[in-house]
Write a structure and sequence with these properties.
The complex is a heterodimer of chains A (about 325) and B (about 290). With about 325 residues, chain A is an alpha/beta fold. Chain A is built from 10 helices and 12 strands. Chain A has helices at about 1-20, 40-55, 70-80, 95-105, 130-140, 155-175, 195-205, 220-230, 255-270, 300-315; strands spanning about 25-30, 60-65, 85-90, 110, 120-125, 145-155, 180-185, 210-215, 235-240, 250-255, 275-280, 285-290. Chain A is elongated. Chain B is about 70% helix and about 0% strand. Chain B has a two-stranded antiparallel ribbon with strand order 1-2. In chain B, a hairpin with a 3-residue loop joins β1 and β2 (about 250). In chain B, α2 (about 35-55) crosses α9 (about 205-215) and α6 (about 145-155) packs across α8 (about 170-195). The termini of chain B are far apart. The chains are: A alpha/beta (about 325), B mainly alpha (about 290). The interface of A and B includes residues 181, 195 and 199 of A.
């Protein structure tokens, strides 16, 4: 009888501990202003988090702030509730994460695209210049006119970093190439202004560019529209955007925010969450160029081989890509 | 260079002209319309949805105009019927549109950022561009030669005189505000189904205020207002082409500088440096039958 009693207690205790081990990890995701459907940066982050929900069985709640001032209260709201891991997407959340993370030292935080030094924050940064270099080289190999374009969203160092890489990659293939670079604006509304993105793209195509790399959030749709109207080429960014306008999008510079977010959630679930800076570059496929059924006809074998050779050279350290952050 | 620049100027100024003409009707009748931005935004959204549903940009723009009229009716209800402060109510309308559009978008498409994209052959390619200038001509004639045009002017300048002539001032103001909603809605439509291929959140990006600036610069008259829009459009088109280009001994012109030009011009006009600009006398006041 006593044995049975003890056994039952053991079962109960085991059950409780098992339950707590299986308790789903709660993840709060605060997206950047572009929103989950920007088909680009935020879409990638959202995809990583939903993949984690499906594969790891975590509980996910996401919010799409409408302006910069909303970041901090949203992050804090997640922290005050029983969320275990709070993820902030975008450099604009740096200050807010630093502040809220300091107030909730027992919670885990992740920030994408900027660095916060705190014992409970993991910073995910990408080597955008390396990815820009490869698509710049592809653009230069494809261009017939010797002129290519770049359209950035908001004029900030991060977006300049794409540009410097892109230009360096293009010049590596063709030192005489002209790169026309424009920015949609200087405020966050620059991410959401497709009519202006289109005007900029039309001006660049009119000036002779035949490939334009758009790193401009939702304003990039305007660039794709211009490419469609003028029957020229554009390059997508962050997510694979080749499907958006098949035949018009030469390739996309992938920035695998999805993978980085997924692995952070996985680590949190396995109790292996570590703070500190994690960089993602060409070597770990954190940045890359896309090739799929939508653009394979636009990228001949010779172009792909040369792009892959450049990739190998960068990974091996034979080519050093200029980094805007180190200027 | 020059043809591109002209085409670009005309394109960029199209939504401004629609919205500014809309603003003109409302303001000439004595109702300040700071809500142009919100009316445009809702118009842009409704036009995109309408085009996606009906596959016709014409019906789509009808949707956009109808949405503008609806929102303008809410505005008129508050400022004419309920005598709310026009600046405060206008700001509220702008915020309402900013919140309403992603909300409805989420219900319709489970997306808050932008509507699905509209195929190339279902969009306008140049129609709004001509339409807005036809509208300018119509407005010039309307304001000058028709009784209703005069009623609008009198409602804004001498409401008492209009009332004495047996015309109901507030009814004229109601109509003017509704027309203003329709035109601002069309301005929004030209953004979403002419200048781009979908609605995206807050895509008006201050164009409603730019239209308002053009209206002040144009002294509340249709042709000068349209020309002011053209000037702002030109500044924008030049800015796009000058961005990062070195002029004046290798120094690029800062983009920010060219972007503030329209507002700078407006301030100068308001301050009386470029010829005085007088708003309609009874602008912003409630008309009560004495």
């Amino acid at each position: 009888m006593r044995v049975l009693n003890r056994l039952s207690i053991l079962v109960v205790v085991l059950g409780i501990s098992l339950q707590s081990a299986l308790a789903e990890v709660k993840v709060g995701l605060v997206l950047d202003l572009g929103g989950k459907d920007d088909k680009s940066f935020n879409a990638s982050a959202y995809e990583g988090a939903t993949a984690a929900r499906k594969k790891l069985g975590i509980y996910l709640k996401y919010v799409e702030p409408s302006d910069d001032n909303a970041f901090e209260p949203l992050l804090r709201a997640f922290a005050q509730k029983d969320f275990d891991l709070i993820i902030g997407i975008g450099f604009a959340q740096k200050e807010a994460i630093a502040k809220v993370a300091a107030q909730f030292p027992q919670k885990h935080f992740v920030v994408v695209d900027s660095q916060v030094d705190a014992p409970n924050v993991r910073s995910l940064m990408f080597q955008e210049h390396e990815g820009g270099f490869i698509v710049g080289a592809i653009a230069a190999m494809t261009s017939q006119t010797g002129k290519i374009g770049y359209i950035g969203g908001m004029d900030v160092p991060l977006i300049r970093r794409f540009e410097t890489g892109y230009e360096a990659g293009a010049k590596k293939i063709n030192p005489q190439i002209t790169v026309i670079a424009n920015y949609v604006g200087v405020t966050p509304s620059a991410w959401n202004n497709p009519p202006r993105g289109k005007e900029l793209a039309l001006a660049q195509y009119d000036a002779g560019a035949d490939v334009i790399f758009a790193a401009a959030g939702a304003s990039g749709f305007g660039v794709f529209d211009a490419a469609e109207e003028r029957k020229k080429l554009a390059i997508g960014v962050d997510s694979n955007e080749d499907w958006v306008k098949p035949g018009q999008i030469l390739t996309s510079m992938l920035k695998r925010v999805d993978l980085a977010v997924f692995s952070a959630i996985q680590d949190a679930q396995n109790g292996k969450f570590t703070a500190g800076l994690k960089r993602f570059g060409l070597a770990d496929k954190g940045v890359d160029y896309s090739i799929d059924q939508y653009n394979e006809k636009l990228l001949p074998e010779s172009v792909r081989q040369r792009a892959d050779a450049l990739k190998a050279d960068i990974i091996a350290g034979k080519i050093v890509v200029p980094d805007y952050y180190k200027k | 260079m020059s043809w591109d620049l002209l085409a670009s100027t005309l394109r960029v100024s199209t939504p401004l002209i629609f919205a500014a003409l809309g603003g003109m009707f409302s303001e000439r009748s004595g109702v300040i319309n700071i809500a142009l931005e919100g009316l445009m935004l809702l118009g842009a959204f409704a036009a995109a949805v309408g085009t996606l549903v009906t596959h016709s940009p014409w019906l789509g723009s009808a949707f956009g105009m109808a949405a503008g009229v609806l929102l303008a009716a809410v505005y008129a209800l508050f400022v004419i019927r309920l005598r709310a402060n026009q600046i405060v109510a206008g700001t509220a309308i702008n915020m309402l549109a900013m919140g309403l559009t992603p909300f409805i978008c989420k219900i319709l498409y489970d997306v808050t950022g932008s509507t699905p994209s509209i195929p190339l052959h279902e969009r306008f390619h140049s129609v709004p561009l001509y339409l807005c200038w036809a509208l300018v001509a119509a407005c010039v004639l309307w304001m000058r030669y028709t009784p209703t045009g005069l009623w609008v002017s009198f409602a804004g300048e001498h409401p008492e005189a209009l009332d004495a002539a047996g015309i109901r001032v507030n009814r004229v103001r109601w109509m003017a505000v509704l027309v203003s909603g329709a035109l601002a809605g069309m301005g929004g439509a030209s953004l979403s189904i002419f200048l781009s291929s979908s609605f995206s959140r807050d895509m008006t990006a201050g164009r409603g205020f730019m239209a308002l600036a053009a209206l002040i610069f144009g002294k509340w008259k249709p042709l000068p207002t349209a020309l002011a829009c053209l000037l702002f459009g030109f500044a924008d088109a030049v800015q796009i082409r000058l961005q990062g280009v070195a002029v004046w001994g290798g120094h690029p012109i800062p983009v920010e500088f060219i972007q503030i030009l329209p507002y700078l011009v407006t301030i100068l006009v308001l301050a009386g440096f470029v010829g005085r600009s007088h708003p309609p006398k009874a602008s912003g006041t409630v008309f009560e039958k004495g």
